[in-house]
Design goal:
There is one protein chain. With 118 residues, this protein is mainly beta. It is built from no helices and eleven strands. Strands 2, 4, 5, 6, 9, 10 and 11 form a seven-stranded mixed sheet that branches.
Amino acid sequence: QVQLVESGGGLVQPGGSLRLSCAASGLSFRSFVMGWYRQVPGQEREEVARAPIEGQPPYYGDSVKGRFTISRDNAKDTAYLQMNTLKPDDTAVYYCYAEGHFSGIKYWGKGTLVTVSS
């Protein structure tokens, strides 16, 4: 049974930082692309960042380039999203996903809320 468990969300002031974690189990982590989407109620889901399997460059959405960094630790089956210089517009529920590089099967976490407010 595949599980993706996000953690690290919370309330932060504008300009602050947070690091989200996504711990995966039940899958062959190295064979999965790991990524993050975010969603604000009433708005479309937005892909924030994607960490392909080894040897390929990461992807970042235009709204987070230069502020967010995605990484993965294949030894710990965990992906991370370091978020710096946070803005109120970054407020959303952040969802981790894992997509099979060969199968295309996608799994989702339950999400973690990030609130950027003074």
